[in-house]
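Per reviewer request, we include the raw input and output of the structure prediction for the construct analysed in the revised manuscript.
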Amino acid sequence: MKLAISERDKFLLCLVGSLLLVFLAYYFGFRNFSDRTSALESEISTLQVKYNDLKDKSDNIPKYKQDTENYNRIFEGGLAGYDSGFSQKATLMFTTELEAELGVWVRTVSMPDAALVYTFGNVVSSNPSANGAKVYSTDMKGYKKTVTYSYECDYDTFKELLAYILDYDTVYTIDTVSCSYNEDDELMSGNIMISQYAITGSDRDYYESDIDSIDLGTENLFVSESNPNRVIEAADEFGLMTNYDIALSLSSESSDLSSVVLGRRGYSSSQVSANTNDNVPVVINLSGENGEYTISYSVGDKQYPAADKTLVDLSFNPGRSLDLMVFSSERESDNDKSGASVTINNESDMTLNIKVVNDDSSNPRFKVESVNGAVRYYR
């Protein structure tokens, strides 16, 4: 018996086969392509967000570099206010200065060992992608040394004592003060506890104090100091990065700071500045002798003290050395012309030590126009 398939059955078989092919094509083909397309679109969206973020950061690279340079300069300026170590010799020198310059009678001094109060580098990033990693690594540590003095002086000297400690060229704080007044001899006496802070580590070398009253021989056998006007280069023997009296900041006109800022350390009211893409004339005047010194200066047409503030006290105490610290920066481009042409008039009996850091090697921002008096440059 011969089996025959009708035309109707053939049509149904073809229809079923076609539907099966369409189903298989959708199930194994189109659906996979659709899922892959959705995954790629999601990945593209994620990568586009990252690209936009990186593009913005790439466009701001010059600004980030300039901001980093400015913040490093601000950090170095703040760090310079802290000494780089302690010694009993330095404490005794400080005590001797108190007695010699103010006339305070220091009866007793207690000098316990320094204590560690802060370890740098323990700041953890708040960025989730950093997974709790530390923001930076350093070997710097902060120490505190507390010294207690038993003193005796008159009332005016007592006020000068407090001001002297708080205005000293490295960071001191007054923790406690006790005092009593004797009406018979008009003297005050009591105890004062002060703390000195220091940051050690990294490249912060500690420079031991020199005792000027003891002749230790010639400082440099190969350099004659008979001519006080001679300008020489020498290694930083005083630690100017951590112990300066006057600061000069030089940067580009487009930075967050004014291009030229000059002032005494610790006295924000003494700052004068100019912001221009050109060399600014800077004049520094120093005078005095035997521990009594005065200072005035100008940046362009701005001067300290201002012409309408004739009652401003120009006197200051530089300590064992008279130091100018120049915080400069590299030029951003050939169009960056900002800088300072400096004139120094040093009529004091001290040598002005000058240290310049981070200046542009090919086209320095710091330029000395003229020098009158004893000046020494440090690398």
